[in-house]
Design brief:
The chain has one domain: SH3 type barrels (Roll), CATH 2.30.30. The chain is of the alpha+beta class and 89 residues long. Helix content is 22%, strand content 35%.
Length: 89
């Protein structure tokens, strides 16, 4: 079962490597209700924008844990060399 989950996870993120050369999104391009992925420091986060309580602040819901938090919490320690923001299908 764990092996099967690992294969699914690997194929799910295969598209990230194929995005090389593609233009990354800006935080200003995020829209309420849309689903996005963010890669930073080797970790990938999948989230949906729930609300924009004020200019430049985004309340998001993690699609895996269903936890709600501010998008700023994912990048408050900086952006790594692998930083990428992309829309999910």
């Amino acid at each position: 079962m764990a092996e099967k989950a690992g294969i699914l996870a690997a194929s799910k993120y295969k598209s990230i490597k194929s995005r090389e050369g593609a233009m990354a999104l800006s935080f200003d391009n995020l829209r309420r209700g849309k689903k996005y992925g963010l890669q930073n420091y080797g970790e990938v986060f999948e989230f949906q924008v729930v609300d924009m309580p004020e200019e430049g602040a985004y309340k998001v819901k993690d699609l895996n844990t269903l936890e709600t938090f501010l998008l700023h919490d994912l990048v408050k320690y900086g952006r790594g060399k692998d930083f990428d923001l992309f829309e999910l299908d």
